[in-house]
């Protein structure tokens, strides 16, 4: 058996262990399902009337998709911190298994959670009037791009969880950085309405690019009540979203692995 095959096998075992833990504690899924549904209802029916009505609801769902899978990275943060605090990682170290399996298993299981969350959010979106107006290939590409972004965010979460180590710190750190990154974007409103430097950050924010890419691929409005954006990132949203997701994985996977080696050697 090659090292790669062994790593994939061991990662699958760890991922299955994490999913069984969720099955035994289904309340862990509450924040990943109830929170995005709350955001959909809040923005669609409370703010939607003044932001564009039905057209805004179709615009909104792309942003909600991206926000939801980004927030799901908190599962990775808290899960890793919990395993460290309870000594589970030390037990894994004592086993003849790949060192990357703990991290890859965690990010893979959280990707599976994101798949479930996306299904629930799709059903919720259909109930509030969202529809996919493009072809099946574009829709599949959109969902694939969304899951790639989710996988990238989980590696950021893995690094944050290893830095935090304690569950108490992880619960705050897992969401603290997500709020400004998510809301300074076009997830909920057009970046063009934002002032000065904040607008530039929002226009090049990967969350903006991924939300715009989903809207484009699903055949939804890219903007409501405003002309389409003319920045390079917006004009090439699908390409830019895929590139930034791969870049995040390329940066944070080795960072998380290096941090795991330092933590595990103590």
Automatic annotation (TrEMBL):
How would you describe this protein's topology in the membrane? Answer: Multi-pass membrane protein
> What residue ranges are annotated as transmembrane?
28-47, 59-82, 103-128, 140-162, 174-191, 237-258
Q: What positions does the domain ABC transmembrane type-2 occupy?
A: 27-263
PROSITE patterns per UniProt: ABC_TM2
Q: Which UniProt keywords apply?
A: Antibiotic resistance, Cell membrane, Membrane, Transmembrane, Transmembrane helix, Transport
Xref: Pfam families: ABC2_membrane (PF01061)
Would the keyword Cell membrane be found if you checked this record's keyword annotation? yes
Instruction: List the signal peptide residues.
Output: none
- Superkingdom classification of source: Bacteria
- Gene Ontology annotations for the cellular component aspect, listed alphabetically: ATP-binding cassette (ABC) transporter complex
Where found, per UniProt?
Answer: Cell membrane; Membrane
Listed GO MF terms: ABC-type transporter activity
An annotated GO BP? response to antibiotic
For whether the record's keyword set contains Transmembrane helix, the answer is yes
Task: Give the family per the record.
Answer: Belongs to the ABC-2 integral membrane protein family.
Listed PANTHER family: NODULATION PROTEIN J (PTHR43229)
Instruction: Kindly provide the name given to this protein in its UniProt entry.
Output: Transport permease protein
- Record lineage: Bacteria, Bacillati, Actinomycetota, Actinomycetes, Pseudonocardiales
